[in-house]
Design brief:
single chain, 255 residues, alpha/beta, Rossmann fold, 7 helices, 28% helix, 26% strand
């Protein structure tokens, strides 16, 4: 059996007195397409940041590609939550995507090579946004900006791709294209995606993990009402309206 590309053992983390993660254990293999679901504040983004080496757990061990997460960050592609990224600074689409190559540049002047530009152009073509290469990022729609962020992550030529709510604020057509690309990428790299879009995850991922301080991993992409109740700690109704599915928690009278 090959070594996991991500190995998490007995990891716990707290913000002050508020415990966010408790005794997390998870192996992500090189052929994994893992979806993580759970309520807001359940620890999903914190877990992604621990995988990236951006924060250090209070206890436990994390290994990415056989070493410390921070040491192997250049081999990890990362798409952050849309609302946490500042698109206001002036930069072109091509300039933003080229930033994904920074970890591969050495030397005092850190200039992009012709190869860097070819790789960046290839990722723009993959995302079908080549025609936007000279546009300013802050002039784009939300869906276009998300495509740029994924292109930037892919320009790093990662071995692992981590995505935190990548299809928030995008239309259905963009979301469908997003997951089409992720399915293609899954043949080349491990993918971990955090999402509240139950329908999109259930239709695309190979495994699902439910996270609400504690983590429960299911070796199937099928999301059931029981799994949702386990993650959200309340009764849920899974109502299908074609695509996507929606989750509606029960509330007490008067809420």
């Amino acid at each position: 059996m090959t070594e996991p590309v991500i190995s998490i053992r007995d990891v716990s983390f707290s913000y002050g007195i508020h415990q966010v993660l408790e005794d997390i254990n998870l192996d992500v293999m090189e052929n994994d397409f893992l979806g993580i679901i759970g309520p807001n504040g359940g620890g999903k983004s914190t877990l992604i940041k621990i995988m990236l080496g951006l924060i250090t757990p209070d206890s436990g061990e994390v290994r990415v590609l056989g070493g410390a997460p921070a040491a192997n960050r250049t081999s990890i592609g990362y798409v952050p939550q849309f609302r946490t990224f500042d698109f206001g600074f002036p930069i072109s689409v091509m300039g933003m995507v080229l930033m994904g190559r920074l970890g591969h540049i050495s030397g005092p002047f850190r200039k992009y090579s012709d190869e860097d530009r070819r790789i960046a152009l290839r990722t723009l073509e993959m995302m079908r946004i080549t025609d936007l290469r000279d546009h300013q990022v802050d002039e784009l729609s939300g869906g276009q900006q998300q495509k740029v962020m994924l292109a930037r992550a892919l320009a790093a030529e990662p071995e692992v791709l981590l995505l935190d709510e990548p299809t928030n604020h995008v239309d259905v057509q963009t979301e469908v294209h997003f997951f089409e690309i992720l399915r293609e990428l899954h043949e080349k790299m491990a993918i971990v995606v955090v999402s509240h879009d139950i329908g999109a995850l259930s239709s695309n991922v190979g495994r699902v993990a439910c996270l609400n301080r504690k983590l429960f991993v299911h070796d199937s992409g099928m999301i059931t009402e029981g799994m949702l109740a386990e993650a959200y700690k309340c009764p849920v109704d899974l109502i299908a309206h074609g695509v996507p599915h929606r989750v509606f928690p029960e509330h007490e009278e008067g809420e």
